[in-house]
Design brief:
231 residues, mainly alpha
C-alpha cells in the first residue's frame, strides 16, 4: 500500500470519531472546570508554595487550562482508541492486537506522567528555585505554573510510549528489529537531545531522570520484538 492511500485511509477512519471526541473533550473540560480549584490545590501543594497572578483574567484562564489538561488526561484511553483504530486500519491491525496496542499505550502514558509528577518535576523545580536568595525571592505566576507543569507531564506521557510505537513500526514493516539494534548510538543521541529539550532544568541529573528511562524503554522495545519473534 502506498503512502497516499495509507494517509487517506488513516484520515478517513480518524474523521469518523474526531467530532464526538472533540465534543467530549469540551464537555469534560466544562465539568472539570468546577473542580479545578481542588485540582490546582493538589498540584500546588505538591510542587509549589505561593502562586500569584498579574492580570484580571489570569486565574480564570489558568483554571481553564488545568481543566482542559485534566479532560485530556482522563479521556486518554478514548483518545488512544481513536488514534490506534485509525493507525491500524491501513495496515490491517485489529482485534486482539489492536486491544493490546491501546492497553499498553495507555499504561505507558500514565506511567510517564506519574514519573514526571512525582520524580522529575519536584527535583527540577527544587533545582530552579535553588538559585533564589534573601534578595531574590520567587514570584511564580499561576498561568506560567500551570503551563509549565501540564506541558511537561503530557510530554513525559507521550515519550514513554516509545516501545509500543517501535513494535507497531516493526509489525507493519516500516522498521525492522535489526534496524533498531544497529542504530542504538543514534537512538541514544536523539534521546539525549530530547531529554535536554523536555526536562525542566538543563542539569545532568534531571536529563538522566528522563533520558535513562527512555533509553531503557528503547531497549525494552527491542526485547519485546525478540519475544514476539518480529524481525
Amino acid at each position: 500500500m502506498d503512502t497516499h492511500n495509507t494517509l487517506v485511509i488513516f484520515l478517513s477512519e480518524l474523521r469518523k470519531s474526531i467530532r464526538a471526541l472533540g465534543l467530549s473533550i469540551m464537555l469534560m473540560t466544562a465539568v472539570v472546570f468546577f473542580l479545578s480549584p481542588e485540582l490546582l490545590h493538589l498540584v500546588q501543594e505538591h510542587l509549589a508554595d505561593k502562586l500569584y497572578f498579574f492580570s484580571v483574567a489570569g486565574p480564570f484562564l489558568a483554571h481553564v487550562k488545568l481543566a482542559l489538561f485534566a479532560a485530556l488526561y482522563g479521556l486518554m484511553p478514548w483518545i488512544m482508541t481513536v488514534l490506534w483504530r485509525a493507525l491500524g486500519k491501513p495496515f490491517g491491525v485489529e482485534g486482539r492486537h489492536l486491544f493490546f496496542f491501546i492497553l499498553f499505550t495507555c499504561l505507558l502514558f500514565y506511567a510517564g506522567t506519574l514519573f514526571c509528577f512525582f520524580v522529575t518535576l519536584p527535583l527540577g523545580i527544587t533545582f530552579l528555585l535553588g538559585f533564589g536568595s534573601a534578595d531574590l525571592q520567587p514570584v511564580i505566576s499561576i498561568g506560567r505554573f500551570v503551563n509549565f507543569t501540564t506541558i511537561f507531564i503530557l510530554a513525559f506521557g507521550v515519550v514513554f510510549e516509545l516501545p509500543i510505537f517501535m513494535v507497531f513500526m516493526a509489525k507493519v514493516g516500516v522498521f525492522s528489529r535489526s534496524f533498531y539494534e544497529k542504530n542504538r548510538r543514534y537512538a541514544l543521541l536523539l534521546i539525549a537531545i530530547l531529554a535536554a529539550l523536555l526536562t525542566p532544568t538543563p542539569d545532568i541529573v534531571n536529563m538522566l531522570l528522563m533520558g535513562g528511562p527512555l533509553y531503557l524503554l528503547y531497549e525494552a522495545g527491542i526485547v519485546i520484538l525478540m519475544v514476539l519473534r518480529v524481525r
